[in-house]
Amino acid sequence: MNWIKEFKAFAIKGNVIELSVAVVIGAAFSSIINSLVSDIITPLILTPAIEAAGVADIDKLSWGAVKYGKSLAAIIQFVLISLVLFAIIKAINKVNLVEVPTEETKKDPQVELLTEIRDLLKK
């Protein structure tokens, strides 16, 4: 009985709920990033390279018996996914750093005046 109460308290905590929401959103976001990379960015980069190699498909790229096409595509997609995620996270962090002053963060006019006087006296 005690175990059930502990589990209920654990499952209802905000952190667990936030984590579960993050996992679901992450899964949906993953499909967006994968589609962006595999359907848009990778073809833009690989199509000229494939045409230059004279091959119709990247999977058919080979060097003798070594078929490196799929591995090359996987490496390129990994790098592109990493770059896209880095750019998105960097943009989100930049937006989060801009803090809009609220009523709580605005200083009292008297405090501002005293701070200016203090700074002038230091000079």
TrEMBL record:
Predominant location: membrane
The protein's assembly and partners: Homopentamer.
Keywords from the UniProt entry: Cell membrane, Ion channel, Ion transport, Membrane, Transmembrane, Transmembrane helix, Transport
Compartment(s) where it occurs, according to its Swiss-Prot or TrEMBL record: Cell membrane; Membrane
Listed Gene3D superfamilies: Large-conductance mechanosensitive channel, MscL, domain 1
Transmembrane segment boundaries: 12-33, 71-89
Similarity-based family: Belongs to the MscL family.
Transmembrane helix among keywords: yes
Protein name (Swiss-Prot/TrEMBL): Large-conductance mechanosensitive channel
Mode of membrane association: Multi-pass membrane protein
Free-text function comment from the UniProt entry: Channel that opens in response to stretch forces in the membrane lipid bilayer. May participate in the regulation of osmotic pressure changes within the cell.
